[in-house]
Design a protein that fits this description.
alpha/beta
């Protein structure tokens, strides 16, 4: 029997080395480990840059924030990054108040986050688009 806390993670790969994870539901003590494990697995499997689409997040507590901090550290250790996109107002305030938002880019939407990362990687490679 479940206690009602649900989390749905949907992953897509819009570019090499980049994963966008749509996080739907509640991010709390019961579900945060699932997000942390999924993001760390993606980083380890060749997608060091992770964008979390937080638009469908209904709730986030300190466990969710701790998961974000762990993911940021894991990504940085492997030359990657974590970006947050489309965070609801409640989550944006939480990121601001706790300072967690200072650890990662927070974008208005997923398109902006993906665009910023793909431009950065193209510039870093120094290769013109074919």
């Amino acid at each position: 029997m479940t206690h009602g806390t649900t989390l749905l993670l949907t992953v897509r790969h819009p570019a090499d080395s980049l994963a966008v994870v749509t996080v739907s539901g509640e991010l709390d003590v019961d579900t945060a480990p699932e997000l942390r494990t999924k993001a760390m697995d993606l980083i380890g499997q060749g997608s060091p840059h992770v964008v979390l689409d937080m638009a469908p997040v209904e709730f986030c507590d300190s466990s969710g924030l701790n998961a974000l901090i762990a993911i940021v550290q894991h990504a940085r250790e492997r030359g990657g990054s974590l970006s947050v996109a489309a965070a609801p107002d409640q989550l944006t305030r939480l990121l601001d108040m706790t300072g967690v938002g200072d650890l990662m880019p927070v974008h208005a939407d997923v398109g902006e986050a993906v665009d910023r990362l793909t431009r950065a990687s193209t510039a870093a490679e120094g290769t013109p688009d074919a």
